[in-house]
Amino acid sequence: MEARHIAVAADSMDHPPPYSKLPPGPVAAVATLDKLIAELLLTIIGHIKRPSDLRQLCLVCKSLRAVAAPLLYRHVRLGLEDPFAHAFYRADHSGHKHVRYLSFTTRQQVHEVCRMHKDATVALRTLPIHSLIGISFPSNLDMSEALLGKIARQQRTLSVIRMGIAATDPKPRSLVQPILLSKPWTSRLTTLSLRATDGSLGRTAELLKRSGMLTSLELVGDAMPPMWPSARLHLGFWRGLLNYDDPCDLAQPLRLARLSLRQMDLTYVDKSLFVNVDFSHLVTLDIVGLRAIGRLLSGLLGHFREHPPQLKTLQVSCHRHDSLDMMTLSDILMLCTGLTHLSIHAIIRNPTAPPMLALESLIKHTSTLRTFSYSVAVWDEVERGRQAHPCPSALLQVLLGQSPWIEDLAVWLDNMTVPPDTETVRPDFLDIIRRIALGLPALKALRLLGWHMSALASSYLQPAAEIFRTFAKARQQHERRGLEVLLFQPHHDCCGMASVDPAMEMYRDAYSLGKTTLHAVEVQKAALRYDGHHYDVFDD
Questions:
Q1: Which of 12, 37, 187, 509 is surrounded by the fewest CB atoms within 10 Å?
Q2: Is 2.30.29 the CATH classification of the domain at 73-281?
């Protein structure tokens, strides 16, 4: 009898009763402990900035892996050259239901057609139907019928498309149109990004006409200049979008909040563009490397005079073989009273005093700027080349007095520096640094552009850093962080592209400045790219 009681007691110790049979006290304690652990794990996740660190931590902590699954799988990037497809397919399927944004990347060049559409199809097969919000493909991926069929499974929820079509392969041209023109896309599509390199671009304009909810549009041209798409391609697109025969074909004009046009030819744009596209709702306008940019700017000026703009971010740069009318640009900027981010990288011909004076008067009326980037080159008709036109001292002085809340400043100061064979530091250059540090108390990043910046970094960097470090100590009383990035950027011309051969590499000397200490950041190697200010379409 006693043995039987001992056996029962041992049994009960080995297998404790479930929570439902425990007294209220232990139940509440366990529930509270679970809640505290979950909150602690979420706090840990909130302090982890890099996804790679979060993944490594999840490998050793199963509890954190379960809590972090929605964040860990929300945006998945898969390299087509890596053996990812079957590994992703065999992975824990509980995480696949959390995938909302899927990006495919490739290391192949733009002009090389990527044939790895089977791997992309396998990866898409693992996702639940109607779960994706955004999807991104490289511009040289060969689209197959099977891959487009898997994309069609996400039509009801997909609102962001970043799709590029290989320019050298004629096969995908007939495949893209049916999937893009199907009705489910038109009801939810808000963001569209396409490369203007394939023959179906003119037909793709029909998609824009049916997308009443489209708020963000990005169109990117072909590879680096001078390899431009044929004029017939752009003519077909603009005719498809604007419908020259009937300019009012759209049910209602496109009300875009963000428009990005890069490396495109605007020769065939006329007033019909301003009938079918309502620019008064634009918050971000990004026009980079455009040929015949004057046609767009003159139309924008007339449109903004009738409809006051709401622009917050404006980036303008013309094609390296084209020029920009500074007076027209200044007139446009005078109408944009709420600008917070302004970037001007252009070439001007026959410069006179009025353009620079107009730009100075513009800065006098702009007190809301948070980011300012400026570089201009003057076209020399005699030497048939470009001469750098640095940021005038008067413009910089006006900027320091009228826009004190600038956080990011990038200016071309080449005429204020010394040749690379001179070892002495010019006092006037350090005086400019001192005025910037004193006049811009909210400055977090300063980028100095110039031909000789690479050689000057060793001479100027330490004295300039000491100036900012001194002001950072003084700002501690006002709880300001001080400068975080001081960048001497060499080999950079006015159009946002490298002035040296594209095959060369650029070295950047970056130093991170804290409140009181100076931290050196390792010199980085970066391959030169034309579209320097690339953004992530999935930033939410």
A1: 12
A2: no
- Two tokens, residue 119: 């791997």
Q: Which residues contact 81 (CB under 8 A, 6 or more apart)?
A: 106, 107, 108, 116
Q: How are beta strands 134-136 and 160-163 bridged, if at all?
A: parallel
Assigned token pair, 287: 């026009």
Integer Cα distance of 378 and 494 in angstroms: 10
More confident residue, 449 or 217: 217
Which tens digits make up the pLDDT trace of 80-118? 776 665 566 555 566 778 888 888 877 776 666 677 777
Calculate the CA 251 to chain-centre distance: 31
Q: Which two tokens stand for residue 480?
A: 């300001």
Residue 94: Cβ-neighbour burial (10 angstroms; 0-12, 13-18, 19+): exposed
SS3 115: coil
Which residue has 């939410």 as its token pair?
A: 540
**Rounded Cα distance, 177 and 105, in Å:** 23
- Asked if residue 369 lies in contact with residue 362, where contact means CB atoms within 8 angstroms, the answer is no
Under a CB-based contact definition with an 8 Å cutoff, are residues 229 and 222 in contact?
yes
d(CA 509, CA 528): 15
Pairing mode, strands 518-520 and 505-513? antiparallel
- Going from the C-alpha of 118 to that of each of 51, 99, 105, 121, 150, the distances in angstroms are 27, 20, 14, 5, 11
Please give the structure tokens belonging to residue 47.
């302090």
**Which of helix, strand or coil describes residue 45?**
helix
Rounded to whole angstroms, how far apart are CA atoms 274 and 172? 31
Helix (H, G, I), strand (E, B) or coil at 265: strand
d(CA 184, CA 179): 10
Note the pLDDT of residue 455.
Answer: 54
**Which of 255, 260, 306, 313 has its CA nearest to residue 284?**
313
**Nearest 5°: CA angle at 114, between 112 and 117?**
165
Evaluated on CA atoms 406, 409, 415, 416, the torsion sign reads positive
β-strands 258-262, 254-255 pairing? unpaired
Instruction: Decide: residue 298, CB within 10 A, 0-12 exposed, 13-18 middle, 19+ buried.
Output: middle
Return the residue matching tokens 């009300």: 255
User: CB neighbours (10 Å) of residue 12?
Assistant: 10
Instruction: Indicate the residue type of 357.
Output: L
pLDDT at residue 302, as a whole number? 86
Q: Where are the domains of the chain?
A: 26-72, 73-281, 407-530
